[in-house]
Write a structure and sequence with these properties.
2 domains, 22% strand, 409 residues, Metallo-beta-lactamase, Chain A, 7-stranded mixed beta sheet
């Protein structure tokens, strides 16, 4: 089996793997200036692991010209991809920041084939099976069999339960594994401890009459924080794309850990209609506001954060990794950032809570223990080479392919 790493190699973003010059797994974008995309290719078929931009952001561009490869995915992944693509067109259509057109997005619906977990199907001459990856609703490990070699592409995955989705438990037999390594050099705090810290901060701030602003990624993280608030009887507002994503995910109860809990969480949350006047009024209330964007790169957070920044009684609670160079990271590191074209000094209490949906070092090791005899290829990580070296030290046949490299397994 021949593997070509078109993106996501020794980096986080623009994941793309071409198998036997025919079957493409993922085709994402990388958040940079300008955005970066995988190496161009013309696959016979596409399989998508899950609906995050770094794995699906360039999918419609595969349908330009005469190209019409079938696209295989779970139902939530299909709908999340379409939603993200429409948002990209709305923000960047007609510019270099958008690699596809409205027509190419329309073609995606014509080429879409949906599958459930553990339902084998044929794609570009390969037998493919999707397994629950425990990352976000619809996320999948992708098992590819070409008749000689069985390859497991892990996609993004988590080995611990979240409130929104259960941990991955599938370990299908494989001769080779392409494994993500986002958190290969760190260990997450226990989720119950993280949740307890967040709840304590929220309750303390509310008791003192302050406002809690919670920047959160629209897909997965917003719903997780809604579930946390509902479980602890904390009222909250929800603003941004996360409100639409929540309603969409509720249509796929089979891909949720507890559909009834998400229903209760949705009932507990008050949806913001999107007017800045309403947002400024809400920012003066003793309440919790869950809002996009997770790294303060845009969205309703541009109104909320400046509104609460000057009062030490208020709290700003980050719930996901803040990439270098983003306003969220600048606030964590220096206590200030450029937001909406103006410099904002933050006097509010700033905390970070590790609600990650990825396996950490221990989780990755536990997962790979089932594949001690397999070839392990590490990708989707800033320090993939270091993790591969550590695996080799423990007896694994491991490597971290470079961007554009071709490997035979």
């Amino acid at each position: 089996m021949k593997l070509r790493f078109l993106g996501g190699a020794r980096e986080i973003g623009r994941s793309a793997l071409l198998i036997n010059d025919a079957l493409l797994v993922d085709f994402g974008s990388k958040n940079a200036t300008p955005p970066q995309y995988p190496i161009d290719c013309d696959p016979d078929a596409v399989v998508v692991s899950h609906g995050h931009l770094d794995h699906v952001g360039a999918i419609p561009s595969l349908l330009s010209g005469d190209g019409r490869p079938p696209i295989h995915w779970t139902p939530p992944t299909r709908e999340l991809t379409m939603r993200l693509a429409r948002d990209t067109l709305k923000l960047h259509g007609g510019t270099l920041n958008c690699p596809f057109t409205h027509e190419e997005l329309r073609r995606v619906t014509e080429c879409s084939l949906i599958h459930g977990y553990r339902e084998p199907f044929e794609a570009a001459g390969h037998r493919v099976t999707l397994f629950d990856a425990g990352h976000i609703p619809g996320s999948a490990h992708v098992l590819v069999d070409d008749g000689e070699t069985r390859l497991l592409y892990t996609g993004d995955f988590h080995t611990a339960d979240q409130r929104l989705v259960s941990a991955t438990s599938d370990r299908p037999d494989a001769d080779a594994v392409v494994v993500e390594s986002t958190y290969a050099d760190s260990v997450h705090d226990d989720r119950a401890v993280v949740e307890s810290r967040f709840v304590e901060r929220a309750r303390t701030t509310l008791w003192e009459g302050g406002t809690v602003v919670v920047p959160a990624f629209a897909i997965g993280r917003t719903q997780e924080l809604m579930l946390v608030c509902a479980a602890h009887d904390i009222d909250c507002y929800v603003d941004g794309m996360g409100t639409e994503i929540t309603e969409m995910l509720r249509r796929y109860p089979d891909y949720l850990r507890d559909p009834d809990a998400l229903q209760r969480a949705a009932s507990n949350a008050r949806v913001v209609t999107g007017r800045d006047g309403q947002r400024r009024r809400i920012a003066d209330e003793p309440t919790v506001i869950i809002t996009t964007a997770g790294m303060l790169s845009g969205g309703p957070a541009m109104t909320y954060v400046p509104a609460i920044a000057g009062n030490p009684v208020n709290s700003l609670c980050f719930t996901g990794h803040q990439v270098e160079g983003t306003p969220g990271r600048e606030i964590l590191d220096r206590g200030s950032a450029e937001l909406g074209g103006r410099h904002v000094q933050v006097s509010a209490t700033v905390d970070a809570y590790d609600f990650s949906a990825h396996a950490d070092r221990d989780g990755l090791r536990a997962f790979l223990a089932a594949y001690s005899g397999a070839t392990v290829l590490v990708n989707h990580g800033d320090r993939a080479e270091r993790f591969a070296e550590a695996l080799r030290g423990d007896g694994y046949d491991a490597d971290a392919p470079a961007f554009g490299e071709t490997v035979s397994v």
